[in-house]
Design a protein that fits this description.
By secondary structure, the protein is α/β, with parallel strands linked by helices. Strand 3 and strand 4 form a beta hairpin.
Length: about 100
């Protein structure tokens, strides 16, 4: 018996092909659905003053916002056809 079904997403339409199957399994098991996106890690480089910065903070904040908007939209679509607990997570560089 499953309590939750994890659906990894990468922002592509192909990754969303897993949703109908995941919803079917969750429905049969009365399980919740967990949507997860793992963002790639941006390599960092040491600065001359000894601190570490990748210079990508503005880009990273924008990307985080875009991923959150994407996964929230997917969660709403899933809830429309399977009104159960749907959680969504965006992780950076690790599952």
């Amino acid at each position: 018996m499953y309590r939750s079904v994890l659906v990894p997403l990468d922002g592509s339409h192909r990754s969303e092909w897993a949703l109908p199957g995941a919803i079917g399994i969750a429905r049969r098991q009365t399980a919740q659905i967990e949507l997860m996106i793992v963002e790639p890690v941006i390599p960092v480089a040491p600065r001359f003053d000894g601190t570490i910065s990748d210079g990508a903070e503005p880009w990273r904040n924008e990307a985080d916002s875009a991923w959150l908007t994407y996964v929230t939209g997917i969660a709403e679509r899933v809830k429309a056809v399977y009104p159960a607990t749907v959680t969504s997570t965006v992780r950076v560089g690790r599952a």
